[in-house]
Specification:
The complex is a heterodimer of chains A (238) and B (137).
Chain A: H1 2-23, H2 27-33, E1 80-81, H3 99-102, E2 105-106, E3 109-114, E4 117-118, E5 123-130, E6 138-140, E7 159-164, H4 167-177, H5 185-195, E8 201-204, E9 207-218, E10 221-222, E11 226-231, H6 232-237
Parallel strand pairs in A: 4-11
Antiparallel strand pairs in A: 1-2, 3-5, 5-7, 6-9, 8-9, 9-10, 9-11
Chain B: H1 2-36, E1 40-51, E2 61-67, E3 72-78, E4 96-103, E5 111-114, E6 117-120, E7 125-127, E8 133-134
Parallel strand pairs in B: 3-7
Antiparallel strand pairs in B: 1-2, 1-4, 2-3, 4-7, 4-8, 5-6
Classes of the chains: A alpha+beta (238), B alpha+beta (137).
Chain lengths: 238, 137
């Protein structure tokens, strides 16, 4: 009889050990609990000309990505690039061909975007400039999903047309629509607009503008960013 | 003699059965504990900020971030005593920020004063402390 009790007690001890082990946090969680601060990984900025290696072709890699190898960019004063480094840049002998002949491609450049103020969504904007490739241009708008902005064609190499969705306006509309029916929504929109703050926000007369950065990326590089002003007041009052 | 052996066997079987039962319960508890500790992360461009103007939530604000994980804009509540802020100890529009949040926890944490009443603003969650959020820029 005593033996059976010893056996039962032993099994109970095993059970408690299993319970303890089952509820022990993983090592990563434990580190957080002990106060070890996780390092923050900076999200890539398209303005830095960082290209993605992801299979989806997205401009931004996500957290915990491995450091990317720096790409070689050789820029001249006219913002043009060569396809491969010449011996001059690598410290070798002086190239026999003139530099102008080595320059084979030109990085994209945005001169203007029309219209400069967007008052409804989705709104077609025309990006004018130079250095756009016939296919394979990506319009980079950091505040929008990249889908729909990839592999954009430019027949003349000088203009690109895309539709700007400005998804933030839809988000704000959803928040306003979720309010109780007793709320005067027209009045609330005016309060909401006037309370928005930030370096991207500009209040003017009866409306509020949000600056949206637009740039073009293709195989030859990344263009200068140009701001498009979105009339948020017009979008929310729609 | 035989009766004694059967009795011993029964006790042994019952003990083993109880132990197996406890182990099964432990394996059920384990995934639930892991789920409770699950962290929701976000990261992307901080596009605009909405300060919460009602007295009860005056120190809080909603930050609108285009989240590159979900590829959608998110409205997250920043509350100084509930949200941990990392270096550079600031959050500004136009910066890329990274952090964690508790979904659905910020429902009444941001209210806007409009007309004569305080109106709660719907959000996607409350920025929390595990690990919090911040920017390295």
């Amino acid at each position: 009889m005593k033996k059976q009790w010893y056996l039962s007690i032993s099994l109970l001890v095993v059970f408690f050990v299993v319970i303890y082990l089952a509820n022990t946090p993983d090592s990563s969680t434990k580190n957080l609990e002990e106060g070890t601060e996780p390092s923050l990984v900076q999200v890539g900025n398209p303005r830095d000309g960082v290209k993605s290696n992801t299979s989806s072709g997205a401009i931004f890699d996500w957290i915990h990505t491995t450091p990317r190898q720096p790409e070689l960019h050789f820029e001249t004063e006219s913002k043009t690039t060569t396809g491969s480094p010449s011996p001059l840049y690598l410290g070798g002998s002086y190239p026999t061909t003139p530099l102008s002949e080595q320059i084979t491609t030109k990085s994209p450049q945005i001169d203007s975007i029309t219209p400069s103020i967007v008052t409804s969504t989705p709104y077609e904007i025309v990006i004018s400039g130079s250095g756009f490739t016939t296919t394979g241009n990506t319009v980079v708008i950091p505040s929008e999903s990249q889908s729909g902005f990839e592999n954009i064609a430019s027949a003349d190499g000088k203009t690109i047309k895309v539709k700007l969705p400005f998804s933030l306006a839809q988000k704000m509309r959803d928040q306003i629509m979720a309010m109780p029916s007793s709320v005067n929504k027209k009045q609330f929109i005016e309060t909401f607009l006037s309370n928005l703050t930030g370096s991207t926000v500009a209040h003017a007369n009866t409306t509020t503008y949000i600056g949206v950065s637009v740039s073009v990326s293709n195989i030859n590089g990344v263009s200068n960013p140009v701001l498009v002003q979105v009339d948020l007041g017009a979008l929310l009052r729609e | 003699m035989v009766h004694g052996i059967i009795k011993k066997m029964n006790l042994t079987l019952i003990s083993i059965f109880i132990a197996i039962l406890f182990v099964v319960i432990a394996t059920i508890i384990r995934p639930q504990a892991a789920k409770a500790a699950e962290m929701f992360s976000f990261g992307g461009l901080h596009t605009v900020t909405l300060p919460c103007t009602c007295p009860a939530t005056a120190s809080n604000s909603i930050i609108y971030i285009f989240d590159y994980k979900t590829k959608t804009p998110m409205a997250l509540v920043y509350a100084p005593y509930s949200s941990k802020l990392y270096s550079q100890y600031n959050f500004e529009t136009g910066k890329y920020e990274l952090g964690s949040y508790i979904p659905g926890a910020g429902a009444e944490l941001c209210q806007e004063y409009s007309g004569n009443s305080c109106i709660p603003i719907l959000s996607d969650g409350l920025i929390d402390m595990s690990p919090g959020f911040g920017t390295s820029i």
